[in-house]
Amino acid sequence: MKTRKYLILNGPNLGHIGTRQPEIYGAKGLDSLPELLKELLGEAAGGIELVFHQSNFEGNLIDRLEMARREELDGVAFNAGALTHTSLALADCLAWIGVPCVEVHLSNIFARTDEPLRQQSLMGKACIGVVAGFGILGYALAVLALERHVNR
Ligand code: DQA
After folding, report:
1. Domain ranges for the chain
2. Backbone φ and ψ of 134, nearest 5°
């Protein structure tokens, strides 16, 4: 089977995962992702290439998603941070590029009832699914879901 290439895309304030408010977002960094993928996918993890990108700027995230389209990437695991709740521009981008996307959140945004805005996602309807509340494991679960989606 040909190598599948997935983009792990992170938006604003997600450049310090593992350090930023670990009581909310977890203490593990993205460096633990390859190991988690191996646990979930076994041998099949060898056929996966991950590319990582993080930006604090909305336009840069759109540029990277458009590039993912040109590169014909197999999918995106995308944590847009706070832009999840506000960015129609990101939702518009995901709606047309034709690259399957899984929305990822480290925290369970639906349980953050003290901040109702966090329970709303503008980009969710342009995604094949949402993973929230499992910390870094969420990115690995998103890649697993993309694998099944791509090979369905
Ligand atoms: C987040 C949740 C968002 O509400 C928040 O703005 C983030 C991180 C998460 O991963 O839980 O920056 O996307």
Report:
1. 4-150
2. -115, 15
Tens-digit pLDDT string for the chain (152 aa): 789 999 999 999 999 999 999 999 999 999 999 999 999 999 988 999 999 999 999 999 999 999 999 999 999 999 999 999 999 999 999 999 999 999 999 999 999 999 999 999 999 999 999 999 999 999 999 999 999 987 65
Tell me, in angstroms, the distance from the centre of ligand 1 to residue 44's CA.
29
By the 8 A CB rule, do 99 and 31 touch?
A: no
Question: Which residue owns the Cα nearest ligand 1 atom 8?
Answer: 81
The domain defined by 4-150 carries CATH number 2.60.40.1180: no
CA gap 68, 27 in Å, rounded:
29
Q: Left (φ > 0), alpha (ψ -120 to 50) or beta: where does 109 sit?
A: alpha
Amino acid identity at 93: C
